[in-house]
Amino acid sequence: MAQAGTRNRPLSPHLQIWRWGPHMFVSILHRVTGNANAVVGLAILLWWLGALVSGPGAYATFAGHASSWYGIVVLAGVSASLFTHMASGVRHFVLDIGAGYELEANKMWSILSPVIGVALAAIFWALLLLA
Amino acid sequence: MGNGTSIGRVRGLGAAKEGTHHWLVQRFTAVGNLLLLVWLAVSLIMLPDLSYATVREWLSSPLPAVAMGLLIISFFWHARLGMQVMLEDYVHEGGNKFAAILILNLVAFAGAAFGLFCVIRLALGGA
After folding, report:
1. Is it true that domain B20-124 has CATH number 1.20.1300.10?
2. What is the complex's ipTM, to 2 decimals?
3. Looking at the complex, does the CB of residue A15 fall below 8 Å from at least one CB of chain B?
4. Domain for residue A106, yes or no?
5. Cα(B66)–Cα(B61) distance, rounded to whole angstroms?
6. Among A60, A59, A37, which Cα is nearest to A48's?
7. If you placed Cys at A88, which of A4, A30, A73, B70 could pair as Cys (CB 3.0 to 4.6 Å)?
8. Cβ contact B86–A1 (<8 Å)
């Protein structure tokens, strides 16, 4: 009888079953941006630090790539990904303490989290380049 | 493992087999990441420029060097935990999952070690 009920157990429905909502989008976005930060963001951080240790020549090489058109595209993407993950991460802190599950509040912050993240990245670049 | 109730049969059979400690450390490092990312962004904005001499002098001073060291530890630890969850969810075959998480651990520790070496070299290594 130990096996009773273990076969043909219902599986939890996957994405295509549910009607799409912003909470699903922000959840997936949190995972995507987190893994992007881990792979691309940390690689750039190590390249930057390594170039700084290696000397002016290596740093000039790094700066040359970073300020090229493809470097700007990558850095803009990584910064947007970092700040978006930060914003949706703060949303997770709120959910972790048991708050923010009311339908309207949950929907609002699901939409606002990525918007705030991209806005913070834009503010960061504005302050960095204009100051 | 129980031998009768439903909860006893499924306990420990999730993708990760266990997880409270993992979950908590993910939150602890997340708070660290939040503080340290704000520190890094504000610091980069406050620097007069991002030239070699400026950035090197900045990271050679004690407080920025310590903060950057903590950032490397917190970022890499958090990344290691997060990517482990991703692998547990999407790599279904047991042996492949074990190998993927093993490689993740090697790369995460190697990356953190390289980053910390760079910071220590900048702070203590002179020219």
Report:
1. yes
2. 0.90
3. no
4. yes
5. 9
6. A59
7. A30
8. no
| A2 contacts in chain B (CB < 8 Å) | 3-4, 9
CATH number at residue A103: 1.20.1300.10
pTM of the model: 0.90
How do residues A76-92 score in pLDDT, each as one tens digit? Answer: 999 999 999 999 999 99
* Number of other CB atoms surrounding residue A43 within 10 Å: 12
As a whole number of angstroms, the distance between CA A62 and CA A80 comes to: 20
Amino acid code (one letter) for A18? W
Cα–Cα distances in angstroms (integers) from residue B74 to residues A105, A131, B19, B106, in the given order: 30, 29, 19, 16
Instruction: Determine the Cα–Cα distance for residues A31 and A50; give it in Å rounded to an integer.
Output: 28
**Cβ B47 vs Cβ B58: under 8 Å:** yes
Q: What is the pLDDT of residues A26-76, one digit of tens each?
A: 999 999 999 999 999 999 999 999 999 999 999 999 999 999 999 999 999
For chain B, domain boundaries: 20-124
Structure tokens at A67: 């300020």
Cβ within 8 Å of residue A21, ≥6 positions away: A107, A110
Neighbours of A52 (CB within 10 A): 22
Contact assignment for A35 to B55 by CB distance below 8 Å: no
